[in-house]
Write a structure and sequence with these properties.
Helix 2 runs antiparallel to helix 8 (125-135). It is elongated, with a radius of gyration of 19 Å. The protein folds into 2 domains: 8-27 and 143-226, Endonuclease Iii, domain 2; 35-135, Endonuclease III, domain 1 (Orthogonal Bundle), CATH 1.10.340.30. Strand 1 and strand 2 form a beta hairpin. The chain has 227 residues and is mainly α. It has helices spanning 8-22, 35-45, 50-63, 67-71, 75-81, 88-105, 114-118, 125-135, 146-154, 163-170, 179-192, and strands at residues 219-220, 225-226. A two-stranded antiparallel ribbon has the order 1-2. The protein has 11 helices and 2 strands; from the N terminus they run αααααααααααββ. Belongs to the Nth/MutY family. GO terms for molecular function: 4 iron, 4 sulfur cluster binding; class I DNA-(apurinic or apyrimidinic site) endonuclease activity; DNA binding; G/T mismatch-specific thymine-DNA glycosylase activity; metal ion binding.
């Protein structure tokens, strides 16, 4: 197996440095033009691919252009408008109710605080972090999606198992000025090389420092299971 660096801090810094070289244009893949569109896109992206979300939001964003539009929408029609998105019925309810809260409590604007965002239906800390980072230029945490969860464990940067605990564990070891980009880099690498079921360890630029590299490791540290 690869040999991780002596400290988690050194491991995280090496991972970030190498992935920056490999993915110099790493960025959020959801398409949006304002804070409301970003919020809606991220809510829709839960357990759904960004590609599918981008397909659906092309027309959605033309039809619904304000928080009031979502607040006043017929929920069944809204669900139909996002049909094809995972859990579209539930998410239609989230968007309508979130629109109502934004109209009633925030003058139709997207909240700019973690507490304000997580009070919206369908918005957890991960979603709130994305909106804060890309909508308000506020970086106060690390977005832990499935790729970040998998890769940070495989690479030996954390042994925590749940997204909240992983974020808490990563923040002291990932350079603060890289918190936002750390997520995008791991997402890009997770999609291209370090996939969930069959990672291409023989092509990985991190294999020599990855304790899960399957060339000579028996265990995937992301799952704790044998390869």
């Amino acid at each position: 197996m690869g040999t991780p660096l002596e400290s988690r801090e050194a491991q995280a810094e090496a991972v970030v440095e190498r992935l920056h070289e490999e993915y110099p244009d790493s960025a959020i893949s959801l398409r949006y033009s304002n804070r409301l569109e970003l919020l809606v896109a991220v809510v829709l992206s839960a357990q759904c691919t960004d590609e599918r979300v981008n397909e659906k939001t092309k027309e959605l964003f033309e039809k619904y252009q304000s928080a009031a539009d979502y607040a006043e929408a017929d929920e069944e029609q809204l669900a139909e408008d996002i049909y094809g998105i995972t859990f579209h019925n539930n998410k239609a309810g989230y968007l309508k109710n979130a629109g109502q809260i934004m109209v009633e409590e925030y003058d139709g604007e997207v909240p700019d605080s973690m507490s304000g965002l997580t009070d919206l239906p369908g918005v957890g800390r991960k979603t709130a972090n994305v909106v804060l980072q890309h909508g308000h230029d506020i970086v106060e945490g690390i977005v832990v999606d499935t790729h970040v969860q998998r890769l940070s464990r495989r690479l030996g940067i954390t042994e925590a198992e749940t997204p909240p605990k992983i974020e808490e564990d990563l923040m002291p070891v990932v350079p603060e000025d890289e918190w936002q980009q750390f997520t995008h880099l791991l997402i890009d690498h997770g999609r291209a090389v370090c996939t969930a079921r069959n990672p291409s360890c023989d092509e990985c630029i991190l294999a020599d420092i990855c304790p899960s590299a399957k060339m000579d490791s028996d265990v995937d540290l992301a799952s704790g299971e044998a390869w």
